[in-house]
Write a structure and sequence with these properties.
seven-stranded mixed sheet; 12% strand; two-stranded antiparallel ribbon; 44% helix; alpha/beta; 2 domains
Amino acid sequence: MQKKIFKSKIIFYFIISYAAIAFLSFFGSRLNFKYGFISNSISKKNVLSSEYKWGSINSEKCHINTYKKSFKQIINFCERKFLNSNKQILLVGDSHAWHYLPALKVISEKNKFNTIVTTFGSCLFLPGMNKYQTLDCQKYLFDSFDYINDIYFNGGVVVVSSGWTGYIKENLNNDLFNQINSFSKFSEVKNKFDIKIYNKKQTGKIIILGPSPRVNIETIKCFYPGIRKTNYCLQAFDNVVEKNYAIKLKEPLKNYFKSFGFKNVKYLNVFDKLCLESKLNNNNDYCRALDDNGNLLFTDSSHLSVQNALNIKSQLEKLID
């Protein structure tokens, strides 16, 4: 008798569990959209730009933190090739370059651009600023510039980005911004870093992506229902400093790269496209961490979600062309 009761309970619980799974499969996304149990974007595998993959290009092999392999070994693995491609793209910088990979993927696949991605964590992409860089970072910069030359002088496009304002904020006593200004006085950087610019006709392009907004919270916590509806996730964050630096850094960064002999240097101010402005303030001095549907715009305090990174694809594509 007891065995029959036990079996009946198992069958009952199985049926209830199966029915719940079936119900959530059909109606879960609608309930989520209406009541906000879980952020829509977090349910997608590709929400985290840090874990974004594109063919053989992945963060484990192509976004490095130590420099043990040769640069040639890295780029051989971290390349996406297309038949009959007429242009080559190189993405370099730190994690704030890597988080633009989703936008670059869409652009490259649409236009059949051969694309190489190699970035280095916490590595300020300004050759010559040695005291702000580890030895491995400096080696990465030195080797990458050889390859930048090859791409640039063969008509390719080099896309560069770093967490510019993060380094500046961390080094207020050293006034890094003023150093960028002073270092960009042409030959000083080139001589110090000993980079040789080829004496060839310049047919390529350098594109510098300026500072992106910051939200100053660990946004990934907004995945949880109990936190997502609180002010922790719904508040807007002061971005006056980032917004101002996005404007102030334009000429110093362009001049910095021109000091190496690159003439065709462009700067893309990404701030307006990536800052979803505060509803209360009605301006983009304050930026939100979530959109109106609860999708994550950032995955931590400063790195973009895949969805938000895609917001610059039109601007970037125009500059590349």
